[in-house]
Amino acid sequence: MLEVFGIQSVTESVYRSMLERPSADTTEIARIVGISVPQVKAELDLLADLMLVEVGAGTRPFQAIPPEQAIAVLIGREEARLAERQRQVSEAREDLTALVESFVTSRTQTDTQGRVEVIDDPRVVTSRLFQLTQGAHERVSFMLPGHALPPAAIAPSARLDDELLARGIPLRVVVTDASLDTPHWRDHLARQVVLGVQARSHPAPPHRMVIVDGDVAILPRDESSGALVVHGCDLVAPTAALFDEIWQAAIPLVPDTAGAPEGEFSDARVRQVVALLAQGQKDEAIARRLNVSVRTVRRLVSAALSALHAESRFEAGVLAVKRGWVV
To answer: Which PROSITE patterns does the UniProt entry name for this protein (predicted)?
Structure first.
């Protein structure tokens, strides 16, 4: 029990023997615990330092502190240690911000007006992304064309998402339809959607980009692994408009509905179909996007009409917008 406080098992055994045999002397404790008398005396000195026994008088110089008092002492000491550790971590976080600033600034070229940064090193791009997301206040949007992130990149990506969500920053992500064929990436996105990430898939997102608060964008450089960081709403607006256009054309990601009872569909799956209907897509196109049969799409459409109490697909689209199903 006391191991959680860093107390060795033999020390705890000596303490327990004192609780159970209040009249025991060092010789008897040594016999109970299975150690020598000198070892018992050393453990008693340690328990005294831990304030789990108090110095008495006579033939029993040590008396065990009642367990509820002993645990309170240990908990108080541990809480003080954790508070100090938290203070040290906070200081380290402040130092990290300064270190990242130094690392990025020394490796970034900036125009005279400070509106465009040129970064050549992909490692610096990652650090700059860290800086910008740390300063986000409104929303962060990612567009990720191409293949799925490799497994090694999943944990850092999840940490970034979790930090933003913990601060209440809305997070939007657009990925390619094809990338969802990669199991680890599909599973990661499903977990993040459950946590609050807004994720959608698109057949062919045109560019990799990150938009922070609508006034900063990270864009790829042609034929380079580096990036451009663009500042100012007027410069970022075309990129933001492109993202919004792709976002509207993309479909929401929903958890895997395999295993649902026959004839039943999740609310998320129905909303996914409604979003595609609102884009004017036909049943055949929806079936291809969702990798299901046309018959299943028509059943989903029927479920959507029923859920929205709509008489037609057009009315379903109107009602879906009013309910916030389609944004």
So the answer is: HTH_LUXR_2 (PS50043)
